[in-house]
Design brief:
homotetramer; 364 residues; alpha+beta; five-stranded antiparallel sheet; 8 helices; 18 strands
């Protein structure tokens, strides 16, 4: 019943795609952190619409901070950031409340909210709501960095085009940061080109396509998390499913582990200097909900954008007749392109929440 | 930081594998429900150890209800059920706190709890903790049934042996109930035989193997759930990751959706009598975190049991030297066999929680 | 660690007294409610500064709704309302971070936030934060009204001047609404005059004075609430202590009950038409955390405003020397005057939260 | 909707007065704490029934620990303690579901739970449920002690007999511990004798009487807590209202502050060695929800036991007729006598929860 997540760091998202603004309240940020606004702007730019492969809707997405900062430094009070919606064209969506778009939330939202949901542009269900998530997550990434933790993501696949996966054992901060400098955000530029070609082709067909984002974090201490229902897998999975279009989440070997034998899957412990590592990392850095100290590796599967230019048949709810629907508006042929920083944001916020919860005070 | 889940129906699990008892407190059950103890016993029996494919540890697993019932009827007060641990052999585990088993929680738990974790049999991280989950879930299944909702699961795969998947559109209560009558719990008996053969072979090698459980629910009303972070996917994923060995969760087409086009993946709305259905159900019954009224379909990937009879090398923490480890104790070569009712239990508890939250009062 | 309250209706407050804005996010409002903006403005006006007895700081306090509404009707998405701070004079507070005002949160906040707390005007601890609470509460009051529940409050006492108490048995909606039309908000105009005289005298001394607000609700169904830790007393008390300056909360006979005998205090049940009432209402409408159906009666004690014009001695933290402090800024000599609608707001939000939680769907 | 409290330290209470057992699950205790069972038994004995002034119901109340301990040391897993109900006489309560006792929860519970509440001995609403609270709280007191924090309480008043109040400035550990050695638990033995005489007289009349418990904690660091809704006042008040019969909670000067002037109430800061203290402590050690480092002082008002031997008239629900009621069973004429350790337990648990939340790791 809630557009918020977090135990000690509470992130509360508000706004509708074509309302006045979208925004976020972040409660529990440590005081004394000096936000790097330029770095935040660069992070936000990675999610921003634009480019030949993404929606032509163009908005600066510059957050205005209403609270929580004094001279750019966190003061311990909840931080509220607001992004005004300046470029909405609600007329594009006039008919959607009666003619629900297939595989979008229009229909279940109409049922749940008794016809009062804001159907314009998907309302509160829109990918636009990931902009404020990135404001909060961009700040979390900076704080984690100060605590020796780096989070990064790349596009693991679009359709059947696959990028090189992260090396779950030898992953470096450079590997994590590299994809952000490329469009699409991949490790292997050749795979990126193939993805771009595929997306252009799909877009040319008036269609869309899904993909997978792989995210990892290094520098996590061992021992972070909890057994059973409040561990890092539980919380990160729950939060990642809060990104529109995510339909699957897996850690480490994930679904592939289901086809493996124990002798193959088990990660043997080894000594590394004074520390303990594992020779492989099928666990994705988590055992029993608790970090092992190895890189945390998680993947989120995104379905293809449901809003496609192709004509579709759907049901006109008011008369129960089949009708044709052509979705206008501006839509990404592949949300995965812009989802990469969003996955990083959610992962960073989840880790920061757990770090604050278990360490009490951290470096800012 | 918590072995509990649920918003309005709070399920709190306690116990260690080789402690005195395991148990559960369920807070928020509606009053006036007459528990069918025989049906609950049958449900518990599906999870119980035994059979040629499972651990030889044999315990009756009969819960004792300490509270919450008056003459077998829920009274509104928290229900506490306790299952005594009668057949523990802690000697089997004496060395494990220094010699962590690969891919088990021994090592991160030792770090988190500063060496004080109960290492015997996995302690609080053991699959044994799923017994009290099944007590709570078995009750939830009965209450859901009274509200027209049926939940069932089957083994979708063991290794590379696949069962027929649930039909996500035409699924019936009979389909959901059928696997429970078979060992292994499958839709297609031929697949079940192949699974049994594979597991026997793997066990013979002193090894283990992973698998996938597919679970579905029918009879859910459309409109149940919430956008963003507290929807049915968030909550069910979080809770399913609370089952030991789960490494991936997906809804509907899940990871396969990442390779699909929108025109292929979108589920067209159709009229069915007075209601609204979709012609396909790639969504797995959830859009924007809210039920569509179509069958809810979720799959959980289980890694292979980390405790294998084969000799493994691991690290002796006290001296940092490599050492060989032969896990004794009693372990399932494939936890998926016994995980089927556990997945049903967690799914039922999650749905019941949401139903209570949104409907306030339900049929008991 | 959190500036929010509520289980199903989550109210999240943000802002600092002299920052850009204060505001609120309300998550969980039922969809389809048509907000009466004029009534909300009248409610807000009761809290607004001004008048001869209150702070001369004058701000329109008109909320801007950034989300949650479509054409003035709730759409189910979180509602965000922002009130810009237009009339701040931070210079008044320049020295306070080093020279903490006695009995204000300056010092503990400086410790907790390592010197980074926003000290200007009390920052996030300021009574200014009650403005967004009143936005949320004003909406809750309207929704409760549609469900037959009326909430109202009056000043029970200022210093040793006492108003007539609410009649806890025969209380009517007229009684509840009447005080709002008076300044100060009392039942007995004579008591109000005496209070005004006292406050003027205290203000003339450069001093301040405390008081008690009594709040009641009628129309509550019996059976709302829960035993032990999540009942109406627990939740309402917790939330009322969230109003700056509250130091005590009591229900029904409250502290006076401690001096009573059971035979005197017990409220005998009586029949009233088809219903059940009590002949007296020392319980204040709550037994075992659950409503009895009788009027809910709660009182909150407010300490005198710590910011007084009189010179005080305090500690200069930087050198540990005693120093004199003269608080400038604009301060109410008696916060109780403006706290009346705030107590109503918090009470209404708490009740609405419980109503939504237990009834699922309510009238809008 | 929940019989639990706590953010990071979750305390979940279960049981009914005349069911099989009462108990508690405590999730989040730090690992490695060696419980002093003898000290716990002594603490439990202070709450135990018996003595000439209390109910003649006599039970050993020895908890059995089902989980969370290995060789008496906490292992990080949830601790479950169960106290069997050995001495129940349900026949005493046979008629109460139809003939609700005035000012007990019988009637609202019957409404809420549709007639299925366990009416025997008050069921889940009984003072018996404070026994498991004391198990958890007794452990919390021991852990706090290791962190330099001492919590103690005394009977501030019974009827109109008042004990000497705690000195809120100069309070020592000896002051806090002293009352526990006396019966009744007072600072001034003369006041204790007067209370005993009064209670004996009231009991002789077949009546009961209320009272106030004052509790304090010393050794708290400054800076613990949070503004607005999750501070120490909010949380402690909410939890104290979870003790049956509590009708009011106040901190520091509390309701008396409402009659004070700011110049009188404000606590001036003073230097003490390297630290900061206040010359008076009307704040009761809390400003803005955050500890000041001065003694925390809280008082809880208890209503008179509603179960009195005197004949009362009440309503027979089944026919709506007035009827006479003579409560049999065994009841304390003044619950305050046995409530002293319960208030300590709840206070200790609340403080420990906040300490764990903010410090992450503490001394065990």
């Amino acid at each position: 019943m809630s557009s918020q997540f977090g135990n000690r760091l509470k992130v509360s998202i508000f706004g509708q795609s074509h309302g006045d603004a979208v925004g976020v309240v972040v409660d529990g940020l440590p005081a004394g952190f000096h936000m790097d606004k330029a770095a935040l702007a660069r992070f936000m730019a990675r999610r921003a619409p634009g480019g030949t492969l993404a929606t032509p809707r163009s908005e600066a997405d510059t957050p205005r901070f209403l609270s929580g900062l004094v001279d750019g430094v966190t003061c311990g009070a909840p931080l509220c950031a607001v992004i005004e919606n300046t470029n909405t064209r609600s007329g594009d969506y006039a008919d959607l409340s009666d003619l629900p778009r297939p595989s979008h939330a229009d229909y279940p939202a109409a049922v749940k909210y008794h016809g009062f949901a804001d159907a314009r542009g998907g309302g509160h269900f829109s990918g636009r709501l990931t902009a404020p998530v990135c404001v909060a997550g961009g700040i979390a990434l900076q704080i984690l960095q100060k605590n020796g933790i780096t989070v990064g993501a790349h596009i693991a696949s679009v359709g059947d085009v696959h990028d090189t996966p992260f090396d779950p054992v030898a992953l470096t901060a450079d590997d994590l940061i590299a994809p952000a400098a490329r469009t699409p955000a991949v490790l292997d530029p050749t795979a990126g080109e193939a993805m771009a070609t595929l997306i252009a082709s799909v877009a040319g067909d008036g269609d869309s396509i899904g993909g997978v984002v792989e995210c990892a974090a290094i520098g996590l201490p061992a021992g972070l998390g909890a057994p059973l229902y409040d561990g890092i897998e539980n919380r990160l999975a729950a939060n990642l499913f809060g990104i529109p279009a995510v339909k699957g989440v897996e850690f480490g070997a994930g679904f592939a582990a289901a086809a493996m034998r124990g002798s193959e899957h088990n990660d043997p412990y080894r000594r590394a200097g004074m520390g303990v590592v594992t020779a492989t990392n099928h666990a994705g850095g988590v055992l029993g909900g608790i970090t092992t100290g190895m890189p945390l590796v998680v993947r989120a599967a995104f379905k293809p954008t449901p809003s496609i230019a192709k004509e579709q048949t759907t049901l006109r709810l008011s008369n129960g007749e089949l009708d044709t629907l052509t979705v206008r508006g501006r839509h990404d042929p592949c949300v995965v392109l812009r989802a990469v920083p969003v996955v990083e944001a959610v992962t960073a916020l989840t880790i920061l929440d757990m770090l604050l919860e278990e360490k009490g005070e951290i470096t800012v």
